[in-house]
């Protein structure tokens, strides 16, 4: 972990990320030994660390059971706010946004949109993250609703991966306008037409394939392929969808994702679901949540401004 003594203005300025800044502004590990037998004391130490990190203690943290806030904060800080982790902060927030969008959780959508934006995400990148979540939910619905045979699905995926790993010339330019042209373009792109795509209604497969291809398979998109697949994995993990988990794990690896990045994407999905569950389950006041989120963002911006002088 990085603490305030190790931080430099240059590090803060170059990171330009909510998660990196608020983590490096913190003091690091909480003083466990002094409060090991005193949950209330440990909670107070945690609130102090949250305030030092975020500039305030958001109401939903105060509402969390006092005896559990220290480990919950440590988890949040160690994964989501850690600029030293495998996935860059901006993409962790886009993962959080994608997961939030399809829960759906209005609180988390608001938070992760703001956090991703402060971390440097563009409007185009936030839209792509949300569309990736939509695509994963769509095909998860088809795969599960059609009770697709998992063994067959895995075999077809293995064939697709083997095909795309081999060098091929530029695929023929095919204008996709109906089912027939869609199947030809799918085969030219993937080497075969997966069974679950054949199960999709012919009247809609052209549009469904074009959306899939122009967002998920587009190497020129705003979000790099590796992070699109990690977004897909995060969404799939908390649906949960076994088909999509297998698919996005393999395609993330195909795009260069490491085991650490894969684990972190899943962890980000779990954290987003965790806090979404608490916020919605306690019916946290949305206006208060948004106001406090805006204040956290303002606090971070102020720190950036001071550091830049």
Description:
- This protein is mostly helical.
- It is 69% helix and 0% strand.
- The chain has helices at 9-15, 18-24, 39-54, 59-63, 69-79, 89-102, 106-118, 123-145, 150-165, 179-190, 195-198, 202-215, 225-237, 242-254, 259-281, 286-308.
- Helix 6 packs across helix 8 (123-145) and helix 13 (225-237) crosses helix 15.
- The longest helix is centred in the middle third of the chain and has 23 residues, at 123-145.
Question: Keywords for this structure?
Answer:
309 residues, mainly alpha, 16 helices, 69% helix, disordered N terminus
Kindly state the percentage of residues in helix. 55-70%
Low-confidence stretches: 1-17, 19-36
Q: What value does the Rg take, in angstroms?
A: 22 Å
- Tally the helices: 16
Number of beta-strand segments? 0
Largest beta-sheet details? none
What oligomeric assembly is this protein in? Answer: single chain
Structural class: mainly alpha
Kindly summarize this structure in a few lines.
By secondary structure, the chain is mainly alpha-helical.
Draw up the topology in text.
Layout: H1 9-15, H2 18-24, H3 39-54, H4 59-63, H5 69-79, H6 89-102, H7 106-118, H8 123-145, H9 150-165, H10 179-190, H11 195-198, H12 202-215, H13 225-237, H14 242-254, H15 259-281, H16 286-308
Helix pairs in contact: 6-7, 6-8, 6-13, 6-15, 7-16, 8-13, 9-14, 10-12, 13-14, 13-15
């Amino acid at each position: 972990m990085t603490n305030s003594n190790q931080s430099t203005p240059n590090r803060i300025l170059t990171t330009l990320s909510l998660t990196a800044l608020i983590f490096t502004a913190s003091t690091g590990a909480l003083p466990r030994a002094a409060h090991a037998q005193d949950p209330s004391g440990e909670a107070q130490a945690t609130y102090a660390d949250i305030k030092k990190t975020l500039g305030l203690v958001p109401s939903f943290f105060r509402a969390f059971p006092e005896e559990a806030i220290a480990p919950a904060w440590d988890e949040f800080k160690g994964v989501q706010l850690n600029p030293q982790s495998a996935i860059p902060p901006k993409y962790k927030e886009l993962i959080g946004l994608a997961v939030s969008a399809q829960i759906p959780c209005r609180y988390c959508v608001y938070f992760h949109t703001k956090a991703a934006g402060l971390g440097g995400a563009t409007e185009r990148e936030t839209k792509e993250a949300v569309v990736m979540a939509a695509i994963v939910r769509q095909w998860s619905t088809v795969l599960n609703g059609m009770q697709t045979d998992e063994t067959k699905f895995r075999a077809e995926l293995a064939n697709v991966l083997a095909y795309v790993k081999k060098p091929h010339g530029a695929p023929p330019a095919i204008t996709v306008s109906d089912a027939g042209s869609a199947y030809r373009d799918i085969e030219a792109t993937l080497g075969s037409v997966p069974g679950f795509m054949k199960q999709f209604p012919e009247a809609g497969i052209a549009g469904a394939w074009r959306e899939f291809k122009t967002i998920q398979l587009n190497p020129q998109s705003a979000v790099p392929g590796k992070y699109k697949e990690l977004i897909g994995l995060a969404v799939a993990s908390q649906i949960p969808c076994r088909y999509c988990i297998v698919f996005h794990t393999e395609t993330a690896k195909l795009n260069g994702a490491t085991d650490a990045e894969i684990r972190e994407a899943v962890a980000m999905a779990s954290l987003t679901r965790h806090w979404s569950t608490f916020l919605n389950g306690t019916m946290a006041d949305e206006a208060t949540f948004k106001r406090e989120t805006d204040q956290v963002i303002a606090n971070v911006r102020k720190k950036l401004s001071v550091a830049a002088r």
